[in-house]
Amino acid sequence: MQAILQISNVSKVYASGFQALKSVNLDIQKGEVFALLGPNGAGKTTLISIICGIAKASTGTVTVDGHDNVRDYRASRSLIGLVPQELTTDAFESVWATVTFSRGLFNKAPDPTHIENVLRGLSLWDKRHNRILTLSGGMKRRVLIAKALAHEPRLLFLDEPTAGVDVDLRRDMWQLVRELRASGVTVILTTHYIDEAEEMADRIGVMRRGEIILVKDKVDLMRDFGKKQLSLQLQRPLRRIPPELLGYSLDLSADGSELMYTYDAQDERISIVGFLKHLGDLGIDFRDLRTTESSLEDIFVSLVKEKS
Amino acid sequence: MNLHAVRAIYAFEMARTARTLMQSIISPMVSTSLYFIVFGSAIGSRMPTVGGVSYGAFIVPGLIMLSILTQSISNASFAIYFPKYTGTIYELLSAPVSAFEVVLSYVGAAATKSVVLGLIILATSAIFVPLHVEHPIWMAGFLFLTATTFSLVGFIIGILATGFENLQVVPLLIVTPLTFLGGSFYSIGMLPPFWQKVALFNPVVYLISGFRWSFYGFADVGVGASVAVAFGFLITSLAIVGWIFKTGYRLKA
Predict the structure, then answer these.
(1) For chain A, which ranges sit under pLDDT 50?
(2) Is the pLDDT of residue B228 over 90?
(3) Domain with A93 in it: what CATH number?
(4) How many CB atoms lie within 10 A of CB B106?
(5) How much is the pLDDT for B147?
(6) Helices A218-225 and A296-307: crossing angle, nearest 10°?
(7) How far is the C-alpha of A36 from the C-alpha of B11, rounded, in Å?
(8) For the residues B82-108, what does the mean pLDDT come to?
């Protein structure tokens, strides 16, 4: 697959001396949904700002579909749409006027049909004559997305798109991202809702303190870093884990009635049947069992902790 | 050249003027009419002519300049400061728009509003005093040049401003006093010799003088000096704007 975005050795040191980015390298493939995760202050928004031209990189280069974003800023910026984190909209303009303005700003001739399609797709058509200040927070978020889509970008940045929006709108946004992806638009998403990234992303990047500490295909990430847990409800509570079982990664609940076995599902040496037989040999009976799998959130938390 | 962007920003700014007609046009028109009633009719009727022109007619170019200078700065500074304040400037900074196109559209819109306002004041003044314009092309040239230059000044103020109060400081505390002391309501020839020399350090004297010459054919300073000062202002403002966009000062982190 061809890269639509190439970030090479990009660093950013603010005038205050704070280093927000440390030599970031990243390639984004055409048509993928990439989730950029990281705790607050990791540098996600700074990186997006540099790519979009809002902030200047201290070192390094960014190319968008082969266009350097400084030397050939017109070509690179015209390919990008940005939905910012903050609800920064004009207050007194109508929805129609502000979305039409955005299209013109990105050097596109007026196209009322396209604007109508965008507004209908975001359930804003009925509000097109409303002034933005009269809209709810969720509706304002939709307006920001409509503005970003007005010039038909090929690379869309969604910086915390569902922060503070209701469940319905979140679901609508997820659907929108799927549709954009189907139409060939590359989407880069930052979010604090890890389930959102798990739901939508093809690849995951994790940032921490200005560095990208991991980039992986989501399925590979879940496979490589994911853990499974087998929980057994015991017939008779245990006071402690028997010494014969210390070779297993086990936890015992406080009341001794539940035994949890955490294992790597990819490790072929591990046999659940063998473990259960071992319990049987020791006379430990159970009345129920269940298995759970690590979520992306568990993996994210462990990754960020691991590197700190 | 991104003409669609220039058109979009220009139309956006002009639409804002249409929404705020009371503040943009009606308010300066009313205050100018009050000047005519007070200075032109009440006080002016008791004053002799200046250079053969009635006092009411004499102050017309100065009043137009007063409005042009303050409104150009207000319009342009607010136009660029407001997106900075609300955060919507992210869109401008991330758009494929050059510094020249940004300046052309914002300053063009602010200057257009000022020129329209100047023409409205001119038409209003014709109701109160007999008017004639001896050099209409020069008059239009001075009007356009001053509106453009001071819109650029406003644009710079808007970028440098860190609060709404900053937007008012230059028009109220610098431009208005310089305009009042720059011969809006009198010829500097009426001042004592020492103050005549001091007045020549006030750049607004040259702008008003040149503009008044285009109306009545007489001036406090030579027309060439007025044109030179107007262009000097323009070039200095352009250089500052160019530096701001080159460095991203107060625009880009």
Answers:
(1) none
(2) yes
(3) 3.40.50.300
(4) 26
(5) 93
(6) 70
(7) 37
(8) 89
Interchain CB contacts (distance < 8 Å): A and B: 82
Q: For residue B19, is pLDDT > 70? A: yes
Task: Supply the pLDDT for residue A147.
Answer: 93
Q: In the structure, what pLDDT confidence band is assigned to residue B151 with cuts at 50, 70 and 90?
A: very high
Start-end of H helices in chain A: 44-52, 73-78, 95-105, 112-121, 137-149, 167-182, 194-200, 218-225, 272-281, 296-307
Chain A residues with beta carbon closer than 8 angstroms to that of B95 = 77, 105-106
- Contact residues of B toward A, CB < 8 A: 2-5, 7-9, 11-12, 15-16, 19, 86-88, 90-98, 248, 252-253
pLDDT of residue A268: 66
The domain total for chain A is 2
Nearest-by-CA chain B residue for A18: B253
- Taking residue B186's Cβ as centre, other Cβ atoms within 10 Å add up to 18
Q: What is the model's pLDDT at position A304?
A: 67
Please report whether residue A307 resides in a domain: no
Question: Amino acid letter at B217?
Answer: G
Q: Domain range holding B98? A: 3-247
CB contact under 8 A, B94 and A52: yes
Q: Which residues of B touch A101 (CB under 8 A)?
A: 8-9, 11-12
Structural domain range at position A287: 227-294
Q: Which of A194, A223, A252 is the last residue of a domain?
A: A223
CA–CA separation, B182 and B200 (whole Å): 9
In-domain check, residue A301:
no
Query: How many domains are contained in chain B?
Result: 1
Same domain, A236 and A183: no
A108: chain B residues, CB-CB within 8 Å? 4
Are residue A77 and residue A145 in the same domain, yes or no?
yes
- pLDDT attached to residue A13: 92
Residues A231 and A219 occupy one common structural domain: no
Q: Is the sign of the CA dihedral B179, B180, B181, B182 positive or negative?
A: positive
Residue A116 burial (CB count, 10 A): 14
